[in-house]
Design brief:
The protein has 287 residues and is an alpha/beta fold. Helix content is 39%, strand content 17%. Bound molecules: zinc ion.
């Protein structure tokens, strides 16, 4: 099969409580019981309307909290993957502690859901090659933590030397895959177009144009976001946040569902096939 003739799109969510949101976690704010996890249900509704299966990167404690809902989604064909035992950025942990945490989190998710957990995305996209090797040792088939551009906090440092690039941003070595996030290049600078705050906060005309241009010339696209970005609950007021973080938590929320649908329609128009990462590892294994 000539895999380069096909184009693949993967829709993911980092399923975490509102208190795990990077800037909320760093603020130390107590948000009580507000988890905003109804955003997962809103996301699944959008995806199911278009026949798309989600890859749900889930924090272990969050999985315990909403295990019934997640089990229901798994039974409907969506896939569970790991987003950490808790939401600590991996680069804050030494390799032994990381290995211990990931091993017990993988075992716990597999015990709860009765299904193999073979994928991982690092909290805060905080990842390096040593930790990537640990994931492989623990039996993971893939990671999806590579941003592909510079990020100030807990920058991801993944060197793809020795990997084969099978699709634009999809790398493989010895049967282990790195599914990077998609970026568009403007004047030599990489700009993230894979969702989260990057798509939500940008001028829509600008970002939609960038995404459409990328999709026309690429063969792989991944979208990600967090539950709070689609939640119908009001974002709690947190006083000790920086201006940008306040903006990040409040701007562009109500219009995000229609933007996600517009991206889905572009992908359909351009002939992309919607897959989970598990399915993509199987397709790519024959590449
Ligand atoms: Zn996260």
């Amino acid at each position: 099969m000539m895999t380069d003739e096909k184009k693949y799109a993967v829709f993911t969510m980092d399923v975490e409580s509102f208190s795990d949101t990077e800037c909320v976690g760093y603020s130390g704010a107590d948000v009580g019981d507000v988890d905003m996890l109804d955003g997962l249900d809103e996301y699944i509704k959008i995806l199911e309307k278009h026949g798309i299966k989600a890859t749900m990167f889930t924090v272990c404690g969050t999985a315990e909290r909403i295990r019934g809902r997640l089990m229901d989604y798994i039974e409907r064909g969506h896939k569970i993957a790991l987003h950490g035992y808790d939401h600590t950025a991996p680069l804050l942990l030494d390799d032994n502690k990381f290995k211990e945490d990931i091993f017990r989190a993988k075992c716990r998710l597999e015990q709860i859901f009765g299904t193999e957990v073979c994928g991982y995305r690092a909290p805060c996209f905080s990842m390096d090659n040593n930790k990537l090797n640990i994931l492989k040792q623990l039996g993971f088939k893939y990671d999806s933590s590579r941003l592909g551009f510079e990020k100030a906090r807990h920058n991801t440092h993944i060197d793809m030397t020795g990997f084969r690039e099978l699709l634009n941003g999809v790398f493989c070595r010895d049967g282990f895959f790195e599914f990077g996030l998609s970026c568009q290049v403007f004047f030599g600078q990489k700009f993230p177009i894979s969702g989260g705050g990057y798509v939500r906060l940008s001028h829509w005309g600008f970002i939609k144009n960038a995404i459409d241009r990328y999709l026309k010339s690429s063969n792989y696209y991944v979208f990600y976001l967090h539950p709070f970005e689609l939640s119908r609950q009001k974002v709690p007021k947190i006083d000790n946040l920086k201006m940008y973080d306040k903006y990040y938590l409040s701007h562009g929320l109500s219009s995000y569902p229609s933007k996600i649908e517009a991206i889905i329609l572009s992908l359909k128009r351009l002939g992309y096939t919607f897959v989970t990462f598990e399915e993509l590892t199987e397709v790519m294994a024959t590449a």
